[in-house]
């Protein structure tokens, strides 16, 4: 079984803090309810006065997430692995290592998968999802109507901390991929090319769960993040961002800057916690898949796995 199993189809999408989180499963064609790890704590933190106070004073701070990441490195946390796999019905046959070989929960969390578990779409003109998760796209940022909150969108110059880049991508396209704690937590290159150095943009560590984003969409532009430029032949310069979140121990880059990479090669991984990645394309460089566009238009995330087709180069692109 896949992450977030035991869902049930629903006829509606979430609109308020207390509603269930609903996403569309590409593989079953159904709308599903997300089974949220730490759901009660999230709703308390972002939905009560006491919770928001603790968020401001403690939870959003890097030290708290580093402490939690350190906890997940302790040998005793091995005890959490088997119950977690059972609770979220993960497929341990996909893992490179046997479950008994993980020294702690963090090692299990950023586990590697067998190549056959995540085949890479082979079409020459395709781009693939960089991570397992729930995805939203914006085909044209200049016409954006919002992601999780209708009519409210994050600020591109703030996100990139580079006014020239923000101008260059102002009418470009964006993919946002949200990884839950139950997901495979390595992120990959969506296209072949040559990546540059990763630039760290420091910030706090708020949750990137929709429960939090409905309260403040600007979390996506303020959280700690890493920015990498990927030079490609078919898609121009593609911007790759990894966004930290509450309880993310760290963002680890495992690629070598300046070396040619293939589509689907590993770029890095998140240590414990839910996280997000973003991919930005220059104007006219990408045509997103129809199911991704349609669900995003309805402000509903699409669940898809790393390596699957997310779009292709338009026929009339440069």
Automatic annotation (TrEMBL):
GO-annotated molecular function: phosphatidylserine decarboxylase activity
Annotated metabolic or biological route of this protein: Phospholipid metabolism; phosphatidylethanolamine biosynthesis; phosphatidylethanolamine from CDP-diacylglycerol: step 2/2
Group of enzyme by EC: lyase
Record key words, sorted: Cell membrane, Decarboxylase, Lipid biosynthesis, Lipid metabolism, Lyase, Membrane, Phospholipid biosynthesis, Phospholipid metabolism, Pyruvate, Zymogen
Location in or out of the cell: Cell membrane
Keyword Protein transport: no
The enzyme's E.C. designation: 4.1.1.65
Cofactors that this protein relies on: pyruvate
Top-rank taxon: Bacteria
Post-translational modification (record): Is synthesized initially as an inactive proenzyme. Formation of the active enzyme involves a self-maturation process in which the active site pyruvoyl group is generated from an internal serine residue via an autocatalytic post-translational modification. Two non-identical subunits are generated from the proenzyme in this reaction, and the pyruvate is formed at the N-terminus of the alpha chain, which is derived from the carboxyl end of the proenzyme.
Reaction catalysed by this enzyme: a 1,2-diacyl-sn-glycero-3-phospho-L-serine + H(+) = a 1,2-diacyl-sn-glycero-3-phosphoethanolamine + CO2
Entry annotation: catalytic residues: 132, 188, 275
Alphabetical GO biological process terms: phosphatidylethanolamine biosynthetic process
Cofactor remark: Binds 1 pyruvoyl group covalently per subunit.
Residues that bear Pyruvic acid (Ser): 275
Residues of the site described as Cleavage (non-hydrolytic): 274-275
UniProt function note: Catalyzes the formation of phosphatidylethanolamine (PtdEtn) from phosphatidylserine (PtdSer).
Family note: Belongs to the phosphatidylserine decarboxylase family. PSD-B subfamily. Prokaryotic type II sub-subfamily.
Protein name: Phosphatidylserine decarboxylase proenzyme
């Amino acid at each position: 079984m896949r992450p977030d199993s035991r869902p049930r189809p629903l006829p509606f999408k979430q609109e308020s803090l207390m509603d269930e989180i609903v996403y569309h499963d590409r593989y079953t064609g159904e709308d599903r309810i997300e089974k949220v790890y730490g759901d009660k704590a999230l709703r308390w933190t972002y939905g009560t006065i006491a919770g928001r106070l603790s968020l401001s004073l403690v939870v959003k701070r890097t030290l708290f997430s580093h402490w939690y990441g350190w906890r997940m490195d302790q040998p005793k946390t091995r005890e959490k692995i088997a119950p977690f796999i059972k609770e979220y019905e993960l497929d341990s046959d996909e893992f490179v290592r046997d479950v008994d070989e993980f020294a702690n929960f963090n090692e299990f969390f950023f586990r590697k998968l067998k190549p056959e578990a995540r085949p890479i779409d082979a079409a020459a003109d395709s781009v693939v999802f960089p991570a397992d998760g729930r995805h939203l796209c914006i085909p044209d940022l200049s016409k954006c109507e919002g992601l999780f909150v209708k009519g409210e969108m994050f600020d591109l110059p703030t996100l990139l901390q580079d006014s020239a880049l923000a101008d260059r991508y102002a009418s470009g396209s964006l993919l946002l991929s949200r990884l839950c704690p139950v997901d495979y937590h390595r992120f990959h290159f969506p296209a072949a090319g040559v990546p540059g150095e990763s630039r760290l943009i420091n910030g706090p560590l708020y949750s990137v769960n929709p429960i939090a984003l409905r309260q403040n969409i600007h979390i996506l532009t303020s959280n700690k993040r890493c920015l990498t430029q990927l030079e490609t032949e078919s898609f121009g310069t593609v911007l790759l961002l990894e966004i930290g979140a509450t309880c993310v121990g760290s963002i680890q880059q495992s690629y070598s800057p300046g070396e040619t990479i293939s589509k689907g090669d590993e770029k890095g991984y998140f240590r414990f916690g839910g996280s997000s990645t973003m991919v930005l394309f220059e104007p006219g460089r990408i045509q997103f898949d129809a199911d991704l566009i349609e669900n995003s238009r309805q402000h509903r995330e699409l669940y898809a796995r790393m390596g699957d087709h997310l779009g292709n180069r338009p026929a009339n692109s440069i």
